[in-house]
Amino acid sequence: MKRTSLQDHPCSIARAVDAAGEWWSPLILRDVAYGVRRFRDLQDDLGVSANVLTDRLESLVSEGLLEPRLYQERPARHEYHLTEKGLDLVPALLALMRWGDRWCWPGASGPVRVLHDECGHDVSVQVRCDHCDSEVAAQDLRVTLASPDARLPRDGTPGHVTAGLLAAAPDGVTLNP
Q1: Is 148 domain-assigned?
Q2: pTM, whole model, 2 decimals?
Q3: Which tens digit of pLDDT belongs to each residue from 91-119?
Q4: Contact (Cβ atoms closer than 8 angstroms) between residue 21 and residue 62
């Protein structure tokens, strides 16, 4: 079953989900980042059907997140490697993992630690202000249009409700729990 594409949606989150948010895609990216790079190994590790894995790999390659590299010519077989674009998703995957550690595991402790290779200590994903370098909590964030001249979606098209909220609040919308 084909899903509706979000590539033209007026939202960066929607477009990111379109590129990497399909059910198996984050798990494939995780495995490749861990060094599981061959089709059979990915299939065995994930327990995913061959046709679904083929579809996801093709999608991740076409999005430029993975790069296939030939390791055997007859028959042609490829390993998959993260591209620069794929590596840029690692912080998002870590943030998702940390959320899962906190909310999906007893004792708020998941099965994997991510360590800084140089010093051996745990890493964290934080939201920081570029100006004052302070860590910022979600409830202390404000969202505004990137430009007052931004072209807004027409009524009835995806994103028109949120765009209307942002356009009506010149100082932005504060995230609230």
Answers
A1: yes
A2: 0.88
A3: 999 999 999 999 999 998 899 999 999 99
A4: no
